[in-house]
Amino acid sequence: MLFRSLRAECGADLPSFFTRVIPAATRTIGPVVQKYGFPETQDGASNFAGSIKAHASDPEIAENLREMMAWFVPTPVS
Asked: What is the CB-side half-sphere exposure of residue 35 using CA atoms within 13 A?
């Protein structure tokens, strides 16, 4: 998947992460968030994630939320 290779290329380089990975993740999830009434933007994805957090007590939703949030969080520097 293009997203995973971009993320691996950027590693802990935050400027690259924010200019390459975030836009790719936003494009990937955009159609999904739009389906639920959110704009196909980084803010739309963030608001979508916030909305589904209310249902995070469901294990399946919690796991999907963790996976989605991993797209938007850079790899920590060791």
From this structure: 5
